[in-house]
Amino acid sequence: MAARLWQVLTDPLVRQNPVTLQILGICSALAVTTALDTALTMAVSLTVVVVLAAGIVSAIRRFIPSTIRLIVQIIVVASLVIVIDQVLQAYFFEISKRLSVFVSLITTNCLVLGRTESFARNNPPLPSMIDALGNGLGYSLVLIVIGATRELFGAGSLMGVQILPTVDQGGWFTPLGLMLLAPSAFFLLGGLVWAIRSARPEQAEAAEHVAPAVAEAGR
Amino acid sequence: MADVLPLRLWRRFLALPLESRPKTLAVAFAVSAVCAALVTGATVILRPIQEANRAAETQLRLEALLSAIPGMEQIMAEAGGDVLSAVVVDLDAGRAADDVTPATIEAALGEAANWTALTPEQDVAMIGRRPDLAQVFLLRDAAGDIALVVLPVFGAGYNGTIRAMLALHGDMNTIAGVAVTDQSETPGLGARIEEPAWQAGFAGKRVADEAGRIRFAVASGPAAGPHEVDGITGATRTSNAITRIVRFWMGPDGYGPLIDAIRRGEF
Asked: What is the tally of structural domains in chain A?
């Protein structure tokens, strides 16, 4: 039992990572990763929401009529998100200002609904919450990697502490402005997906189409 | 006793299959009620802390703005070391509002009657409607004349509303400093309006020329002349937004009447 739970927890970290394998929840993964501290806050918020949502949905799973199951799940998730947002605004005001609308958008993060719909609805609360925690941590891992890379190369700092002295401050490092813009997150995420699938070829998807062979005219 | 009608109905209800219509409705209602209670509770309990956060934030920006103004210590010393006094002004009349105090302005601005819709020609800052009341901060020197005014301004930026506080010297034309209190511009480009290095460029700039025409602008490039502030490379839209915001609020539909009143010494 313990071994199975351990597998449920660790599988989503790399092998079944929700972001890099299933490409779920990338909207927020791209939007909040300009700095490591916002990425961390977002990662913690999403992990808390997904764990609590999985726990609640799993606890009431026998009472959810299947006709309205998605609505019930969304209501549970949305309420949790509003509560988390309010808590952030009250106790982490600075960071909540920078995360702005993206905390509210956890509601529409397909990662959360994906876990409640595909796992929590059919499993008891404990495995559901462990599965959700694993997926939250997998998401967090990706956010931290991308957030750290973007902040380090975009601003020369990590968690706001200057690591590479920038030219503005008399150092040698010219910040890469592109790193702070949304496209760089796509590049980094794409690179990450490529790296993971190269190291673990079993993750690569089979080609859906094969390019037809072409013959040049006149031959 | 067990045969009472409501109890019997309840038993029949419990015996219904989960997918039946009454039970579906009941589950939907129960989930909504619990979630509504949760959300309402969190909002109500945490609101005082959030409001305190916002007030502290504004105060902090105000203090940072004041400490960044060149020669501020001297002005403060001349004023007897006193702090700023907050006054709610009526923008159209250009004088202190009669029955609204800094404590009640939030409630007053919640009423639509205290806002004026702007025509597209008037609406330089692209805000749609303008509050009729604003909380400004005044600093008087030893003679009782106004040495410094801090005016809150806002307008549409590239990604969202930009809010700032603009400090004017007693001549109501020379900018003493600026502080951006709220913005959601592009990080690394437009968001650089938050950098003190850029904001320092405002000090000493003049809003209008001798003829009284408003000339202030964020330049597209390095500043030229006494009315211009350096532009931000790669953030033309944000730079233009700042130009429009300052021009609107210094103009006749913004603080114009107040500025005239202060110049006439009526304040």
From this structure: 1
